[in-house]
Amino acid sequence: MRKLMILIVMILMGCGTRGGFEDEAKIRQAKSSLRVIRNAIQEYYVDHGEYPEEGANLKEVLDQYLSHSVVKEGHAVREPGLIVQEAKNRISQARSILGKCINIKELEKDMKLLEQILEGYERELATGEPYEDTLKTTFLVKRMQKTCESLKPERMKKILNDSLRQIFNTVLPFFKDMLDAAKQEDLKEVLQHIYDTYLVYKLKFEGKPTGELKVYTLENEFALLKKLVDEPIYDTLLKLNNLLLNTKKRKEYAELLISGKASLNAAYSILEALENSRDAIRHANKIVLAQAILNKMADALQDYRRKHGVFPGKSCDLEKILHPYFVETLISGEKVDHWDDAIKRFVAIPEYITDDSTRGFAMRAKVASIPNVEVSVTVQVTNKWDELVQAFSEGPLYFTPDPKKTYFLMARAKDSEGVIITDKPPREALQ
């Protein structure tokens, strides 16, 4: 009863007019911090089947639920990491640039070969297994450049431009005369659609604005036209249309070849740099992959802490603890053991170091086949309690009439009025 009276008095004292934006911010921060503590208490309940006893040291009791880990890699992986990332970027850049050549049918075969090699490079970076191919990317690009040159796209474009100019000068007046002579409204509409579409093509060809003119689907318009004019007239108009569209399409292909040539030139320099640095990339990748395995081991040890409350002791059997995390269960139920593949990245099983198994550990290992290079990872656990309670001028106070059923949290914010903040289990937790 006395505790209840104290609680009521504190709540009444906390009521009053709040200050400005700064006070509101402090109250919001206090509420947020108390909510984090509330959530940690709920996690404690899930694990223990009851809430902490009244009078418990919440900082210690909730340590596992309010802790976060700071993971730091050793210095040895920084420069190799940049080298490997640069290699990945070059592969991505080359692919993006070569995408402009993808519809050039004369380059299709070499494009597939080039893609296979780039995929091989990526597998090498992902697995560390060396990828070798008899063809170099730069050789393929050179061959593709020669193919483009042999087609003489600039000359092709000039010839087709001249042809288009003549075709437009013939086709547009022809359709305009027909449009002027047409008497049927439905025929006029179809001819107007075709004429407007041709006019848009011409204006774009000349680099001029098209205004509000619309482009229509010529295939549909000619299907309608066939029903409205005599067959000889239709055949003549269709031939003119096909001549225009085929010439236009060939000109676009010539432009694609010119663009492809420029893309191949840009891709060549990127792929040349990639090939020239293959040895350095492979060397760096061994270090990066070794660090990735060590990081996975660190993740496994953090999972161990979540299950046991502490990290393994310094005299633990590290292989026995870590090995299960490298066994993959396939959809079929078959188990695949990756432990040996992981360990071969190192000269020996990593060294495990811990002075306090509640607060963190370090691991280090020498990289296989690279003399005097050692990768390492450090995991340091910090408790957020001290950071959270900085939002309070008083508290948090913790009350529980029955740890198996409920509890009550209360703290005072750091605003000018010292507003009381309260929290309790979510409603669903009480059902």
Structural key phrases:
15 helices, 4-stranded antiparallel sheet, 12% strand, 9 strands, 431 residues, alpha+beta
Could you characterize the architecture of this molecule?
The structure is a single chain. The protein has 431 residues and is α+β, with helices and mostly antiparallel strands. Among the domains are: 2-54 and 400-430, no CATH class; 68-76 and 296-385, no CATH class. It is 59% helix and 12% strand. Strand 7 and strand 8 form a beta hairpin. The chain is elongated, with a radius of gyration of 37 Å.
Helix content: 55-70%
Query: Number of DSSP helices?
Result: 15
Shape: elongated
Q: What characterizes the major β-sheet?
A: 4 strands, antiparallel
The arrangement of helices and strands along the chain is HHHHEHHHHHHHHHEEHEEEHEEE
Radius of gyration: 37 Å
* Mean of pLDDT: 91
- In terms of quaternary structure, the protein is single chain
Cα separation of the termini: 25 Å
Give the strand line-up of the largest sheet: 1-6-5-4
